[in-house]
Amino acid sequence: MSIIAGLRRYAEVNGDIKTKLLSQNKVTVEDVNGQRYLGCALDSGKTIEIHGTAGNDLACYLNGGKILLYGNGQDAVGNTMGGGQIIIHGHSGDALGYGMRDGEIYIRDNVCCRGGIHMKEFRSMKPVLVIGQNAGSFLGEYMAGGTIILLGLNMKRGEKLFGTHCASGMHGGKIYVRGAFPKENLSPNIKISSLTDEDKKELDKYVKNYCKYFGQDYEAVMSKPFKKLTPVTSRPYANLYTSN
Amino acid sequence: MAVNYIPRRFTVIRDKNLCIDCGCCVRQCSNECHFFDGDGKTVVSDSENCVACHRCVDLCPTRALRIEKYVCDYRENANWTPQYQQEICRQAETGGVLLSGMGTPKPYPIYWDKILLNASQVTNPSIDPLREPMEIRTILGRKPEKITVEKKGKSTVEMPPQVIIETPIMFSAMSFGSISLNAQKSLAMAAKNLGTLFNTGEGGLHPDLKEYTDCAIVQVASGRFGVHKEYLNNSRFVEIKIGQGAKPGIGGHLPGEKVNVEVSNARMIPEGSDAISPAPHHDIYSIEDLRQLIWSIKQATDNKKPVSVKIAAVHNVAAIASGCVRAGADIVVIDGFRGGTGAAPTRIRDNVGIPIELALAAADQRLRDEGIRSRISLVAAGSFRCSADIVKAIALGADACYCASAPLIAMGCHMCQTCNTGKCNWGIATQRPELTKRLNPEIMHLRVENLINAWNHEIKEIMGGMGINSVDSLRGNRLMLRGIGLSEKELEILGIMHAGE
After folding, report:
1. Can you spell out the DSSP letters for B23-64?
2. What residue in B sits closest to A37 (Cα-Cα)?
3. Which of A173, A209, B167, B233 is 20 to 30 A from B499, comparing alpha carbons?
4. Which CATH superfamily is domain A3-231 in?
């Protein structure tokens, strides 16, 4: 039996979800209308399937669990997530994957500002963010690790792959972009390069996942060339200060 | 030869009659001021890099060393002081933003020194804390707006999570990275034994400190370093760092040189990479957004942990504090501009923010005026030098105080203000193994405990003198305070009368 969120308060809905997950590994929530914190700190082995519009901080501190969202996400999806998987059949708001340290996020459509801000990696933890359409300004701001893949599918005429100040303050990780992209929107100290064989292997894996989750044609997606964006230095502010 | 535009600051004076050339100072100085002469036997000094940390002075077995201020006069000028001239030269040389350690050394007014405490005479007898019970136990957390009781007198109100500390003194946030693990461990051990709390700062919790999670405040800053479900739940309360008194409006930046393997483990970032916590949390652009983060933490901790919000004392601090309370913070921390830091841009440290005394008084008054003061706990931070400062802060409205510089001084800090260089000879603000091993937590936690125990006793003594036997009766009790040499405006903001009134 699924949980009906309707117009109930988030605390109630989340309470119901937590109770159900004590005895089962998967919960379906329907008629979601912007309830916040769904899937907050969800542990490994647990899955929440959400229908409707999930509210802010969906899957914050995600702890290895899996979130399937049939609808759009709002702001701060996957905030400070430590692992797991988020698949959104729709678009997402600002600050997607803020400070995410591990796990995977797949967005079928576009994302707003500051996607992948503060993404970081640690040893075997390598977060991945796959965006089907395009991204707003400040994509990958302060990015310190992990991978963002920007596919640029179904873009309307005149739309750009990413907004201004892309990769501002980026000092780690990489962004793969497909097709034409607005170089003028890139921040200084970002290097554009071709993909190595290793990069291609990594890209392949996540693009395949994307196509599988959203029913896209893998060959068609891969028909356009990809480029890799990386920071020129891992210490962009190394010479900023002088000891007084 | 390159011109050195800046004269040195200090001179190391070595009494050759006392020096036995043992080389202790040579081994101790990370600034390499002492070395063996060409003969390999005679110890000599080059004062150029001396920061007056006194490590060599304090460890010299024959007391042969002394540090003196190096005097090199410029032509008298009240405007272009030597300091400004030297700072210009430093920037002309490097093009860098000036960076300093510890709190501002500028002679701004210190209101603690202009506030006098009361004592009882004849009418209301004073209390002797050696003989009579004296309560300084403090309870932090959100309090219900009203209490309802069932017939037998039992409360039917569900109490939000509370944190009980045995003294109104806690240790403020200092991350592992800005200070050494040994320094953090000393504070953790002291906190455990004293029944109070230490604060991990924004650097995550090192696995070695797992046994101290019962007395740990864990911080969530904009970089979200080391923040995960377990971290949030392994704590007494969770603190959202919005600002820091020493550098309001400025974030944290731990340079890659300090991110060694241990720091990288705690922060969960690769070794050698910069750890940047910018000033804004990019999920907080408003009080409503702050509410969102507060409640996300409460969701992740099943409402079991109080959440505090730490803000820097800035011009509108009272209104901001009110917003924090309304956003759902259980504890609001206000950090005054004299507070310490591992590193802050000099200009920010010396020019931005307001003193904690005024900020605390204004915020407490505002919350009382709005009828929401009793909902939350108010913690003051930003340079408490002695127990009297703490008593005055509580009387101005604080529930508890955060101290950091004082316990660091107990551990050996000499306020040389060069924490940012990472060369701390006392093993506090450094990650170099040869320096951090100088600080033995087994000894240092005792020194910190001694300090706080002494302060606790002094607080009890001062309270006893006022005829007050519980810290709850001192809180916000501004009648116990009188100003000395303050203007009417200052008295008005502090909400106290002038001495003699």
Report:
1. -HHHHH-TT--EEE-TTSSSEEE-GGG-----HHHHH-TT--
2. B296
3. B167
4. Glutamate synthase, alpha subunit, C-terminal domain (2.160.20.60)
B227-246 residue pLDDT tens: 999 999 999 999 999 999 99
Which of B97, B229, B276 lies nearest to residue A242, judging by beta carbons? B97
Angle among Cα A236, A161, B223 to the nearest 5 degrees reads: 35
Query: Cβ contact (<8 Å) for B299 and A40?
Result: yes
The C-alpha torsion from B205 through B211 and B213 to B218, rounded to 10°, is: -10
Which one of B268, B272, B420 has the shortest CB-CB distance to A101? B268
Fold of B10-72: Alpha-Beta Plaits (3.30.70)
Interface test with B, best of A61, A79, A189 (most B CBs within 10 A): A61
Nearest to B270 by CA among A244, A122, A11, A124: A122
- How far apart CA A152 and CA A227 sit, in angstroms, is 12
Examine the predicted complex and report whether its ipTM is higher than 0.90: yes
Give me B32's structure tokens.
Answer: 């390499």
Chain B residues with CB-CB distance to A142 below 8 A: 223, 276, 278
When CB atoms are compared, the residue of A57, A123, A144 closest to B273 is A144
Domain boundaries, chain B: 10-72, 138-498
Q: B31-53 pLDDT, tens per residue?
A: 999 999 999 999 999 999 999 99
Number of residue pairs across A and B with CB atoms under 8 Å? 133
Positive or negative torsion for Cα B472, B477, B482, B483? positive
Q: What pTM value is reported for the model?
A: 0.95
Every domain of chain A and the residues it spans: 3-231
Q: Which of B5, B6, B264, B283 to mutate to test the interface with A (most CBs of A within 10 A)?
A: B283
Place of tokens 């904690």: B356
